[in-house]
């Protein structure tokens, strides 16, 4: 069953602005991940945040997790045209190598 | 070097045909997956294999038969293709929680 729901479905911003995408999920999780998909390509892992973490940074990416609200956000600061892609959150309920449950993604367009 | 590769990248075929998609990973991972991404970009797990053994089969029609000859390969054979099978199929592998995806195979059934 579908787990993550990203919001908004589509986002268009100017280069240099920050982009915020949100994800909500329904059941308990072990961790939450964000992936990026360029048009016509496979998904690329961006960042993982564990259920006992609240915030994590990686370069221009900042992820927050609120397990009480079952939600996460991905912030991309100082966006670039090359950030244009679809962004998906994914969750898994168990530790180890289990399939991920993906949301429908947010389509981000960064206009130069 | 490509970590997870799939062939073919594009596959166009007629309804009723049988086709295969191949996947190979050179990461040394024990676990491999097949995902299906529909036209609305929704990505859903189909199968999961760990060390050549089927772990998860997510209510996929038995026209779909995965085969893992060794832990570096997970192929997907589809019998009697239907229009609704048109989608992009992604192979992935993982060793810990992070998954590495192949470039996808766009299947179009006419």
Give structural notes.
- The complex is a heterodimer of chains A (112) and B (110).
- Chain A is an all-beta fold.
- Chain A is built from no helices and eleven strands.
- In chain A, strands 2, 4, 5, 9, 10 and 11 form a six-stranded mixed sheet that branches. In chain A, strands 1-3-8-7-6 form a five-stranded antiparallel sheet, with no helix packed on it.
- In chain A, a hairpin with a 4-residue loop joins strand 7 and strand 8 (71-76).
- Chain A starts with a strand and ends with a strand.
- With 110 residues, chain B is mainly β.
- Chain B has no helices and eleven strands.
- Chain B is globular.
- Classes of the chains: A mainly beta (112), B mainly beta (110).
- Chain A binds chain B through residues 2, 30-31, 33, 35, 37, 40-45, 48, 86, 88, 92, 95-102, 104-105, and chain B through 4, 30-31, 33, 35, 40-45, 48, 50, 56, 58, 90, 92, 94-104.
């Amino acid at each position: 069953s579908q787990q993550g729901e990203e919001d908004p479905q589509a986002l268009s911003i100017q280069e240099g602005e920050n982009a915020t995408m949100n994800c909500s999920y329904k059941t308990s999780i072990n961790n939450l991940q964000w992936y990026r998909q360029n048009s016509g390509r496979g998904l690329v892992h961006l960042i993982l945040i564990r259920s006992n973490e609240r915030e994590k940074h990686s370069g221009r990416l900042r992820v927050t997790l609120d397990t009480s609200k079952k939600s996460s956000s991905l912030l991309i600061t100082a966006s670039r045209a090359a950030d244009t892609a679809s962004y998906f959150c994914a969750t898994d309920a168990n530790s180890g190598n289990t399939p991920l449950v993906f949301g429908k993604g947010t389509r981000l367009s960064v206009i130069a | 070097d490509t970590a997870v590769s799939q062939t073919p990248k594009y596959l166009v075929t007629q309804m009723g045909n049988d086709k295969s998609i191949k996947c190979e990973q050179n990461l040394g991972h024990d676990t491999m997956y097949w995902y299906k991404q529909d036209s609305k970009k929704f990505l859903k797990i189909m199968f999961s294999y760990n060390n050549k053994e089927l772990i998860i089969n997510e209510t996929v029609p038995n026209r779909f038969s995965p085969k893992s000859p060794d832990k570096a390969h997970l192929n997907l054979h589809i019998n009697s293709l239907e229009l609704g099978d048109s989608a992009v199929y992604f192979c992935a592998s993982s060793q810990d929680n992070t998954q590495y995806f192949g470039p996808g195979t766009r299947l179009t059934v006419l």
